[in-house]
Amino acid sequence: MARGKKRARPLFEGSEWTFELIRKSYDAIEEVALGELGLDVYANQIELITAEQMLDAYAAIGMPLMYRHWTFGKRFAREELLYRKGVQALAYELVINSDPCVSYIMEENTMTMQALVIAHAAFGHNHFFKNNYLFRQWTRAEYVLDYLAFAKGYVAKCEERYGIDAVEAVLDSAHALMSHGVSRYARRRKPSEKMRRDKARARREHEERTFDDLWRTVPERTKKGRRRKTLSRRHLEHAKSIEELGLPEENLLAFLERHAPKLEDWQRELIRIVRSLAQYFYPQRQTKMMNEGCATFVHYEIMNRLFEKGLLTQGAMLEFLHMHSSVITQPGFNDRRFSGINPYALGFAMMRDIQRICETPSEEDREWFPEIAGNGDALATLRDAWADYRDESFVLQFLSPRVIRDLRLFAISDDAEEPFLTVEAIHEEEGYKRIRQTLARQYDLAYQEPDIQVIDANLKGNRRLVLRHLVRDGKLLEKNECSRTLRHVAELWGYRVRLVEVCAETGKTLKEYDALPLP
Amino acid sequence: MKVLDRRLNPKSKSLGNRQRFVRRAKAHIREAVGEALKRRKVSEVEGSEEISIRSKDLKEPSFTFDRERGEREYVLPGNESFRPGDQILRPPSSAGAGGAEGSPDGEGEDSFVFTLSKEEFLEIFFEDLALPNLAKRKLKKMNSPMLTRAGFQSEGPPSKVNKIATMRKSLARRIALSRPKLAEIEALEKALAEAEKAGDEKRAAALRDELHRKRTRRRAIAFIDPIDLRYNRFERKPRPTTQAVMFCLMDASASMTEELKDLAKRFFMLLHVFLTRHYREVDLVFIRHTSSAMEVDEDTFFYGRATGGTVVSTALEEMRRIVKARYPVDDWNIYAAQASDGHNFRDDMPSTLRLLDQHILPICQYYAYIEVGDDGLLDDGERMSVLWQGYEQLVARHDNFSLAQVLEPSEIFPVFHDLFAGPERAA
């Protein structure tokens, strides 16, 4: 050949795939991913499935195993319809955060797509699952499939023993609270029995040492200056029980599982299963954009490097670019196709931008990102970002003016009382910071979901449970949904449940809901 | 890296989920099925059906924000000409900015369309229907045996090997014949090696001997011997079934227009599907009559063409003959359904009524009469056809006799449903 560089033979030609080609491509991709990009992944397991099986997997929220419940049937019916009518194409791939990392690829895919999918899922997502701090902290990849198998079996056994209806009732209620069944902070280590006893003794000794009967005669004063009544025994007990229950508690499902007075053991276990699922998906919900960005960046990088080595034909490369660009399309807000910010587009754009900042920074970049601008090692910078950030902090840290300009982002404020929306900031010097903050908050689940906590539970008297919704920016709960959900809480709790909506700033009560379980 | 081919794995893993979903949505589905039925052709009664139900009732609630309240700030892409401070009229809620906070769950799904399979459709269709008064129980001829488990047997096909029973036998035999365990032999080998090392030749020889004996014994006694094998045994048990026969009588005379016949056929079609589905052992006898009656097969009954005058008693006579010949009254539950436009040859009425009153109704568990069309309908809604008038006198005297009228296809299912609603109706 006339070319100076010796080019390798392409991995495959044409669109048909075979197991051998998949294996060969996998090896080539692995070489690039681990050797050149320095990714660190779980062992891979690639499974070939049909379109119908893909629909099955969809219905089970992407898990290979799932307990039986009508909501998955409903989801399946809907997905199937959308697919059949051609409204929506199936995903090319599906990947599960487990060890080994299972990626599903479809038999309908062409060989180029299979290669793309392997690069995207088996290396991109896989690396993210293994290294991101949220996944490391909250999910145990090696147990996921076993746990799901247990859950499926357990639910089936309960159905057999207690009837489908009884099981369905508990699962329905638990599902309604799924988004409030997540622990956001790692649990504090419980002090051992001995430590507790030592502490109690020390406190008692201290009290005995410093006891002085005179104090009892001094009238206590409150802020208003009026004499406070000595706390009655009942109040003290109440305060104590609240402390014992660990209130306030934001994980409603966990609280109900532990303290609901009427539940049977198997019902608690069912709640626990739903809660574990919610917890398992929590990191994914917080890192959707980064996760997809990471996978997209990785497949883009890998496919390009393969092409440079001559391992991909031009036809395959064109096919890849076509798919890639349709994945990262971001329609404008006024486009008919617009449905929110495309996580693939934003993630990929930001990561490519980090690469640019590291390698060829402009003056502006040096000013905005002094730590990474021009450091020359984009991949290491990205690997750190993938490991230590979630969507919210990633945007806050890395969204550059350049990306804001490229995507022409602008911030809008929307007060439901007003008939119009106001443009707060656009892609210009004064607007960057505001846009960055607003966008980051958009990815903050704690801000996007209502802040509801258990604040009081009377276990001895009327057994009423009180929840509080801290209302920020006047965002109240949707009435119908709220009363229906609250009924589910009451079903699980077994007694009257009240929800108060309290303004976070003024402390004023804005609205109250009450629910009783059905007899 | 592993590549697994899962394409041959069992499909429709979510069947159980679907059943639960259908069960959950049953009330809505039944409503929709009723709707769907009106649009069907006779030949389509047995088929799958696409139905749509409102998804609102299937929505799973959760704590969410009210979109119409409060202040929000969000970022959108694709700015074209906005400047800070610009005010934009709020777009209608579904378009534009509304998408910014759109939940991934998808809003605005008003009705939920999905396809019911034939099984599911019929399941719902005939739910809570039953033949009344299935009283006479007698063992039917042994043509519906059921396979039931009946212990183990020592011979059989490999596919029926019962591993647990086999291993149990094997274990018992090994213990009884004291087959040396592998651990024993290993212990001996170790002791032998030690003895050899220590140079204790006498002990080594004894050990070697022992080892040899045990090894031989172990070889001689198999781990699993053919006599250990146990197979699952199945027995054919006759299943007691209730004998029932359904007589379908249809007027095929010239006064029955194509539409009326269509109505009658729809009714029988339903009856047919219902019986073949719920009572596999029910015999069906089809009789069509003009001025003479004839027993015909299914196809001729539904699709045959013949016309003539109308003499109802011939059909009843034919039914009586068949009962006498083939269905001894003591052993059989006898049912009959008659469809007609209400015309009869006037002179025939006395004998028709006598036949019904004295011969047919006393032996029937249940007799349903469906009058189709509006020929016999007076202006005030009263039915005045010859048959209806005659039959009405009998209703008072016989519990097991029901009359119903059908004017248009949409009424067929409700009427059918009323006629066969639940086992308690006849009580």
Explain this structure to me?
The complex is a heterodimer of chains A (519) and B (427). Chain A has 519 residues and is an alpha/beta fold. Chain A has 22 helices and nine strands. In chain A, strand 8 and strand 9 form a beta hairpin. In chain A, helix 18 packs antiparallel against helix 20 (432-442). The model of chain A has no long low-confidence stretch (mean pLDDT 86). Chain B is of the alpha/beta class and 427 residues long. Chain B has three domains: 24-57 and 112-125, no CATH class; 158-233, no CATH class; 244-426, von Willebrand factor, type A domain (Rossmann fold, 3-Layer(aba) Sandwich), CATH 3.40.50. Chain B is built from twelve helices and 13 strands. In chain B, the strands form three sheets. A six-stranded mixed β-sheet of chain B has the order 10-9-8-11-12-13, sandwiched between helices. A two-stranded antiparallel sheet of chain B has the order 2-5. In chain B, 28% of the residues are buried. At the A-B interface, helix 1, strand 1, helix 2, helix 3 and helix 7 of A face strand 1, helix 1, strand 3, strand 4 and strand 5 of B.
